[in-house]
Specification:
The model is unreliable at about 1-10 (pLDDT under 50). By secondary structure, the chain is an all-alpha fold. Helix content is about 75%, strand content about 0%. The chain has a single domain (about 20-215), classed as Rhopdopsin 7-helix transmembrane proteins, CATH 1.20.1070. It is built from eight helices and no strands.
Length: about 220
Amino acid sequence: MIQQLRISVPVRPRLRGSMHVFAGVLAAVGGVALVVRAPGGFPRVAVVAYGVTMTAMFAVSAAYHRLRWSDRARRRMKALDHTMIFCFVVGSYAPLAVLVLGPGARLAFLGSLAVVAAVGIVVKLVQLDRPGGPADLLYAVVTWWGVFIALAVFRELSTPDAALAVGGLLLYSLSAGFLAGRWWDLAPATFGYHEVAHTVMLAGTIAHYVLYWRGYG
């Protein structure tokens, strides 16, 4: 008797990366609008960094997840995708630092964050195919780097704006949890756990964008 072996091939959800295609377009438009809205000097520089890293992260993610790549090119895109996440964390904190910190404290906060993010990028590139581990820990560390300026956030921002700042971080952490645990794999062929994580992450991004729109009005 000849037995046929069935090889299980992971299903790629049809909507994988679709959300980030639209998010990239909205990020570009929203980023330009925020740059125009922000006053000149450091606020505008911070907003430019935020808009550029946000747009780049969504654009790279959309290209990585939506397009078909050779194995070699896909690995490079995966590395770039993870790199842009670290870059966006730094970029997304820049407008907040300008809103709540003085020049010296701002430089120390963003400079130290950039160093840790750079270490995270190197660690992730070295362990690109390893799930979890030090790289994920560093993701969590840079995401919650804002705890070092928590007093300034609650002192300088209104209660609704502080809630947006903290809420965005909680949503980012929840998104990471969905990815790590592969939770809520609602419709694996169409909209799986990865898409759920992207949705929650986008909600966190929107929360911070609203914060900055209000703060730089």
